[in-house]
Amino acid sequence: MPPENPPPLQWSLILFCLALLATTMVYWPGLSGEFQFDDQPNIIDNPAVALDSLSWPDLRQASFSGMGVSSRIGRPLSMLSFALNHYFSGFDPFVFKATNLAIHLINGLLVYALVLAIAPFLLGYDVREKRIENGSAALALLVSVVWLLHPLNLTSVLYVVQRMTSLSALFVLCGVLAYAVARRRMLTGQSASTLLLLVPLCTALAFLAKENGILLPGYVLILELTVFRFRSPRPEQVRILKGFAVALVALPLIVALAYLALWPESILGGYSKRSFNLSERLLTEARAVLFYLRLILFPDLSAMGLYHDDFGLSRSLIDPMSTLAAIVGLSALVITALAVGARFPVFPFAVGWFLIGHSLESTIVPLELLHEHRNYLPSLGPLLLGCTALVVAVRRFDWSYKAVAGSVLIGCVVLGGMTWIRAGYWANSFTLTAVAAANHPRSARAHYDMGRLYAGMAVAHPEDAIDYRSNAKQHFEISASLDPHRAAPLFGLIRLNSAHGASIAESVARLTQRLEHSVPQPGTAGWFSNLLNCQSERVCKIEDQTIADLFQAALRNPKLPNSFRAALLIKASQFMYNRVGDGEMALRLARDAVEASPQRVVYKVSLINLYLALDLRSEAKHLLEAASKQDRLARFRREFDAQWERLGTIELPESGSLTDAS
Q1: Burial, 9: exposed, middle or buried (Cβ in 10 Å; 0-12, 13-18, 19+)?
Q2: Residue 520's domain is classified under what CATH number?
């Protein structure tokens, strides 16, 4: 007697476990790579992340150390996870990236479970039938594997700081899954109140990992409207569901209104830091969203990358003409979804899921125009649509299962191969940057990074220093020409030329003009820090007056937001005290920084240090008392303790140089 075939769920789970192993193998080359881009300010340069004990004060300080760096809220769950990584393994990028991969694999399991829960509604099966149908098991397997292996999701795994995205997605998927299971229980006459309560809990946890976790109610709402449609055999449950839906809509609205009330400048004021305005961003995002959709459905490695600053800005509906076409295309997509929703519910669900996923980061919030990690959860919608269409077609047209399975396997191997190639790029910073510059020749950031890497190689390999300096200069020049607002490549040129005795006059003149008249850049204070460090280490030979003139040019810029002004004033204060020895001017600049950004305790910490260095004990004590009360989350507990200790001594210790407070 021939052996019976295993049940659909059993073989599906077996294949899914193999897919988890394959995903690990695909990502393995990239786990040995280095920290990149925003990993530096958020993790490496954040002293609170360097956790050395598990005491509550230290854990709390680490959790809220991202406030003002990653966001206003600070994404405490994500920051805590980074700190715990450091506690157990130090700043080993392999461990950080392996943790990200583990989160990605867990998310893949949640995607599998979610699709399995809603598949009967998408495929027209009887939800009261407890046996798992072949189609449901196949759909859950196919969607989860494609999502796990898709190359567009790579930056949410190997780009360490984007754990904020994947960790938030984990809680979002938990919340949506809890709701889907609850609704299935309701349809069979069972109670599901406890599961429904998990939705607001998961929303809070997702939000604490990253702000777009507040979109969880939107995902749940689109699931209800398109898949479950408020169906229930018990009328009282229908009333509960509708009330719950109203609450789900109200929750993100209340949070959004509260956010705007507390920080009204975060939207419109945030555009003062950008080279585009609100209308230009909205127009550009229409093209960006369709660009994302193309990469999801038709992956193209040459179009992917860490940087997308080469994506052209939309100035009007017809500049470029593709802007109007994108808006028409998105409108047609929504209209089609509404038209076919009754017969093919997966279409409006997929479109709604994708657009809700982009409703925060691809609309009015003054973020950068394009980033791949924004598709980590939204990509699930289009992938579910494509996979469902395939499963339905196989069943309806009686296609050969073996032929379809073979084709799907080839497709998954291709996706995995593309991700494996990308992971190989991430194994080495030079390769990653070189590929980025080759694939995005108009990316100012990619060329700046290439210049920075070549400059470092000139120091590490003096025998080839001439060639490396030439390459570095070329990439810095390209970067400066591609973005008329960007000051970083000119700082790079000054440092490069100064370190090797070449003239810096032309670069200083260009930088002075750019600092004074262009749109201010978020990293300007950091670039000044690099230049000051180069000078203090006697690598760069730059006159003090030259640096003072650059500071003055930047502070004269009429477009300079107060937050940027405060950061520059503190750097200028440290420069005047440490390098020039002018304590009076340093004090004036530090006070101006506190006045420009009174909500930032970090600047008050720096001013207190200066008071102590100048033996102004009364002023130091007064400000320390006020700043300690303002620091409700105890983020600067260690700094304040050290300052109180200094105030308690009879004689002040040697002050040394002033440094950043955090």
Answers
A1: middle
A2: 1.25.40
| Per-residue confidence band for 128, with pLDDT thresholds at 50, 70 and 90 | low
- Strand, helix or coil for residue 316: strand
pLDDT value at position 37? 85
Helices (H) and strands (E) in the chain, counts: 28, 0
For residue range 604-655, list pLDDT tens digits in order. 999 999 999 999 999 999 999 999 998 887 778 888 888 898 888 544 444 4
When comparing pLDDT for 327 and 244, which is higher? Answer: 327
Q: Are residues 404 and 345 in the same domain?
A: yes
Using CA of residue 572, residue 575, residue 578, residue 584, what is the dihedral sign? negative
Q: In terms of domains, do 294 and 154 share one?
A: yes
Q: What integer pLDDT is reported at residue 126 of this predicted model?
A: 62
366 with 477, same domain: the answer is no
Domains: count for the chain: 3
Q: Indicate the burial class of 112 (C-beta count within 10 angstroms; 0-12, 13-18, 19 or more).
A: buried
- Residue 143 burial class via C-beta count within 10 angstroms: exposed 0-12, middle 13-18, buried 19 and up: buried
For 175-194, how does the pLDDT look when each residue is reduced to its tens digit (9 = 90+)? Answer: 999 999 999 988 888 877 78
CB atoms within 10 A of CB 538: 8
Q: Which two tokens stand for residue 635?
A: 């983020």
User: Is 658 a residue whose pLDDT tops 60?
Assistant: no
The verdict on 44 and 108 lying in the same domain is no
Q: Which residue, 540, 562, 597, sits at the end of a domain?
A: 597
Claim to verify: residue 418 and residue 554 sit in the same structural domain: no
Last residue of a domain, one of 403, 424, 445: 424
Residue 602 lies in a domain: no
Q: Do residue 322 and residue 470 come from a single domain? A: no
Which residues, at least 6 apart from 609, have a Cβ–Cβ distance to it below 8 Å? 643, 655, 658, 659, 661
- Dihedral (C-alpha) 620, 625, 626, 630: value to the nearest 10 degrees? 130
Question: Is there a contact between 473 and 453 (Cβ–Cβ < 8 Å)?
Answer: no
**Count of other CB atoms within 10 angstroms of residue 137:** 23
CB-based burial label for 37 (10 Å; 0-12, 13-18, 19+): middle
Closest by CA position to 77, among listed 65, 93, 91:
65
Domain annotation covers residue 227: yes
> Residue 377 corresponds to which amino acid?
L
